[in-house]
Amino acid sequence: MEETIKKYAQRIEKNEVNPHFKYDGSSSGLILDPLREDIPLEVIGFGIYQIKSNVIIKETKEKEVVLVPQNGEFQADVNGKKFFIKREDGPLPKNPKESSASALYVPRNSRLTIQGRGEIAFFEAPALKDNPPFFLSNNEVRVESRGEWVWRRDVTNLIKPKNASSNLIVGETYSPPGFWSGTPIHKHDKERPSEGESDHEEIYFFRFRKRKDKEDQFGPYGVQILMDEGCLRKAYLIEDKSIFAIPGGCHPVVASPVSDLLYLWGLAGRGNTLMMRDIGEFIYLKYYEEIFHQINKEGRKRVVSKMEFQNLCNHYPFTDDQKRLLMVMLKEKGIELE
Fold first, then answer.
1. How many other CB atoms are found less than 10 A from the CB of residue 102?
2. Reduced to 3 states, what is the DSSP secondary structure of residue 163?
3. Distance between CA atoms of 264 and 89, rounded to whole angstroms?
4. pLDDT tens digits, residue range 166-193?
5. Distance (Å, rounded) from C-alpha 301 to C-alpha 2?
6. What pTM, to 2 d.p., does this model score?
């Protein structure tokens, strides 16, 4: 959000505040509390419940909550209404363009009880109105492929104001090994609807396919970038169960070639509709996507002449450097230019 990034950008750049948190895998409860000064957030919170023989009881008060199981089987009771939720074999999909996710929305002024066995992640934020509880089962989720080539990813939308909540927006994104997400880079930290931008904070919870073995020095990893229009230019090495607070700015992420990754994400603001504004200097990547689709049409030959290439480019306001970059990408995709 605009006020959040203004408050924390310089402090993050100077390493006075760290937006990267490493979950120990055992503690249970709220982890990122936006009321704490060392957490670069003002609105949204994040936590994880570890449930064995214990029972979790939570009074939501003025906040709404979204629960997303990570692994296990649970029974949740919201104001006397029961929900049975489970997730087997962890959050990463067995195959691309699949998802085992489910989500439970809990309204404000509710009494939540959870029992079972396993791990549940949750987001919380101030509710803006009274809504009924809502459960989205893993049979109802839909996976959408976004982007192209090395910035292709699978996005699963779970909870949003259009189907359940009043403020929270929650989902998951899966990135294949070596692929980028959040690309072309975008931001949503100013309330400028006429320019296609809203004012939202965000949190990522990362999961990797392969857990670090004792003999491994590093294990699976990725890189999270955080930068804004001012002083902020930071990159962070992320690992399994890394949690990342995004107060604002641009926040692309890339999986290393040694593992795919999945991140659970949640956003909250002041009730405005989520609008993600692409950064203008990288819009040409979306034009590249259109050209990739044209070339990959069924029956299209894998050799492109100079004239055909120029005709493709004539539909877009490319600079000479952007044309050269497109040529490099096409060659890497196995398309010959003659």
1. 20
2. coil
3. 16
4. 999 999 999 999 999 999 999 999 999 9
5. 48
6. 0.95
